[in-house]
Amino acid sequence: MTTSDPRSPAPRTGFTPRQARRLRIAAASVLLVALAVVLVLRLASRTSVLVVGVYGLAMILCGVVIELSRNGRTRLGTWLLATGLLAALAADWLLLP
Fold first, then answer.
1. From CA 82, how far away is CA 78, in angstroms rounded?
2. pTM of the full predicted structure?
3. Nearest to 66 by CA among 37, 92, 32, 89
4. Angle, to 10 degrees, between the axis of helix 17-45 and the axis of helix 49-70?
5. pLDDT digit string, tens, across residues 53-87
6. How far is it, in rounded angstroms, from Cα 53 to Cα 34?
7. What is the DSSP letter of 12?
8. Which of 41, 77, 78, 88 could form a disulfide with 58 if both were Cys (CB 3.0 to 4.6 A apart)?
9. How far apart are the first and last CA of the chain?
10. Using the 8-state DSSP alphabet, how is residue 72 labeled?
11. What gap in Å lies between CA 88 and CA 79, rounded to an integer?
12. 14: which DSSP letter?
């Protein structure tokens, strides 16, 4: 029977800060490429300044999230990425013809 030392720290769960930064950078990079592909496909079917505006702003937001993650602001980057993606999808669904 083994007893644990009460002074020893509890085992750590979850990602380390470096892993979290790399994960957010990878996610934002993948979304950036996906938004670029969707932008090209949308522009092929119809040309609209609104399409370029919505997807352009979403791509800029992905770049901001990458930079925030590089500087250690992963939680803020995660919230911005999630809300920005939802806003871009809502704008695509509601505003774009």
1. 6
2. 0.67
3. 32
4. 170
5. 888 888 888 888 888 888 888 888 888 888 988 88
6. 16
7. P
8. 88
9. 69
10. T
11. 14
12. S
